[in-house]
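#struct-queue
[09:14] JT: dropping the first one here, sequence first, then the structure tokens:
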Amino acid sequence: MMYSAFKLNKQGDNIEPWCTLFPILNQSYSVDYKLQTCYINIVVYLWQLYCTLSKELLEQVAEFEKAEFTSSNKKFIDSMKPKLAPLHEGGAAELLNKEIIRLQEENERLKSRLKTIESQLNTLEQLCNFSKDFIKAQDLSDLGNTVAALKSEFQKTLNDQTENQKSLEENLATAKHDLLRVQEQLSMAEKELEKKFQQTAAYRNMKEILTKKNDQIKDLRKRLAKYEPED
């Protein structure tokens, strides 16, 4: 932490730099007390912000990868296994529809998180630019390197988030394709079930009974026609 880079005396009214992170503070010429104090406060604030944001982003990425991708990918793969549910239920098609909706919501949540990270990065860049303008007479090479490293780390995090977003979009496209395939399998299964039912003894008996009933009705109509008066 940056707190260890500075030391207060017993009265607490002077700040004695003793670290080598910013060598400009160790020079022997006199520096205005208020300017030096403000400079130190800005540097400490930037380091605090850097540590806080870096820790927060790393925790978010780790939590996202562990809690979201691991479990969701496993559930997604399990749901992709072809299986036919009973005809009176949605079956695999309903599960795929729910998975598509969940992936779309996850995609929107990921985009929102990316916007938040970009906003944090812009805020940090503005603070860095302000500190450079305020102490432009000072040697800020070390601080500039730190900011550059921080920006690179943020960019890497954003790239990782972008890759995760692409992966979700690919999974969504795959889910839609599998949905069409499962719907086709379901239609074929219904036709096959109907075909097998027509081959059962119960179906044949029912068809034979209906045929006999139709014949009886035709015979009765012929008999009744004999008794109907002619016009």
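[09:21] JT: and here's the second one, same format:
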Amino acid sequence: MPRRLFPAAAPLRFLLLVLLICGTSCAEANAKEGGTLSRVDLFTAGVTEMTDPASPSDKQKFASFSAPSLVYVDGVVVAFAEAHYTNATDRKPYVGVAARWKKDDATTWAEGSAVVVDHYDAKVYRLLRPTAFVDNGEVYLLLGGYGETGAPLTAAAAAAGYWRPREASGRISSDDDESEGFEWHSQSTSPIPSDLESPTPFKEFLGGGGAGIRLGDNTFVLPVQALKADGKRVSLVVLARGTSYGWKFSEGTS
């Protein structure tokens, strides 16, 4: 399952195709006028800072970014990435999820916001490898929950559900039926209540990376990684009939 990796210490540079943002006609017009596709730095290590909707008065500056993901919904492009930083209170490394967005007709990207910490469990220090997908205007991110050392929360913690995917989510806000931008839901980073709770050959969900797709029968195909009982890390997909039900792992792995 191919994935493009970005160095954690370098800015994430998203080359946004004009086709994605404004359609074929816009691309043709741009070409006729001698224009070129532009590159924009959305997340810059040591520079980009954002607020968490749970603490809107506090800004967090991030040391590095990795594992980008991109979705397009209701006329808005939304870019996500892991956001790495050192907590100013306990001086420990944390990883949140950052988001920036841009409307079709806008010339600049919104400042953005981030889920800086897991809002529901103090044992989760790092939210890694976001896999983004869209359902009826709602944006979902599957995330792997990791502990203080950066290791997956497995074994004794498994009974608490740490091996299952964690989820951050949001929506495209609107004003008079016109899309405005992306905003996080208040219930972010909670475990997904799915039938992946049933016994599986995996002892830990490790997150995924990239974006999921929706098939013609409305089944979601979500690229993920998991840890097997023997400690081997494998890549596979989750097949989901809905956002919180009808989930199962693919039979094949790589």
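[09:30] RK: nice, looked through the second one.
[09:31] RK: The CA atoms of residues 30 and 36 lie 7 Å apart.
[09:31] JT: good to know. The chain has a mean pLDDT of 76.
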